[in-house]
Amino acid sequence: MYTLRVEIEFAAAHFLSNYHGKCEKLHGHNYKARLWVKGEELDKGGMLVDFSILKKTLKQATENLDHSCLNDIDEFMNDPSAERIARYIFENAEKILIEMGVNITPWRVDVFETQTSMASYSL
After folding, report:
1. Cβ atoms of 94 and 105 closer than 8 Å
2. Tens digit of pLDDT for each residue in 95-119?
3. What is the total count of domains within the chain?
4. Annotated catalytic residue, options 9, 27, 67, 99
5. Known active-site residue 69
6. CB-hemisphere CA count at 13 Å for 5?
7. Which residues contact 65 (CB under 8 A, 6 or more apart)?
8. 20 noted as active-site residue
9. What is the mean pLDDT of residues 69-89?
C-alpha cells in the first residue's frame, strides 16, 4: 500500500458555543491541515497521484476557511471543532478529486490547532 501526504496552513477564528471555558470566546489559530491518500496501483510514471494535484486539492478544500470566522460556515453548526473541520476538509477534498477525474479518494485528514493538538477524520 502506498501512502501520500500533503499539508497546508491557514489562519482562522472561531468560538465554541457548547463548550465552557476559554475556547467559548472568539479566538484564532494558525491551523495546519494534512491530506492523506493511499492506494495500491501506481500509474505508468510510477506515481500514485502527482503531489501537485493533491496540493491543489487541499488548497481548494480549505480556501474558504482561510482568514475567516469558522462559525459563519453552516456545516460547523456554530461549533467549529477541530474534528468538524477535519471532516469538512475531507469531504471537500473528496468532491474536488472526483470533479477533477482523479481516481483516488482521501484516506485521512489531520487538523492541527496547535503543534500539540490534532484531530483526524478518516474512512
Report:
1. yes
2. 999 999 998 999 999 999 999 999 9
3. 1
4. 67
5. no
6. 8
7. 10, 12, 31, 73, 85, 88, 89
8. no
9. 95
Among this protein's residues, is 67 annotated catalytic?
A: yes
The pTM of the whole model exceeds 0.85: yes
Catalytic site residue from 23, 63, 83, 99: 23
* Beta strand residue intervals within 1-123, DSSP E: 2-14, 27-39, 68-69, 106-114, 117-122
**End-to-end CA distance of the chain, in Å?**
15
Cell numbers given for 15: 468560538
Domain that holds residue 104: 2-122
Looking at residue 85, which CATH number applies to its domain? 3.30.479.10
Task: Tell me the C-alpha to C-alpha distance, in Å, between residue 81 and each of 44, 46, 51, 88, 108.
Answer: 40, 38, 28, 11, 17
Band the pLDDT of 86: cuts 50, 70, 90.
Answer: very high
pLDDT in tens, 19-56: 888 878 999 999 999 999 999 999 999 999 999 999 99
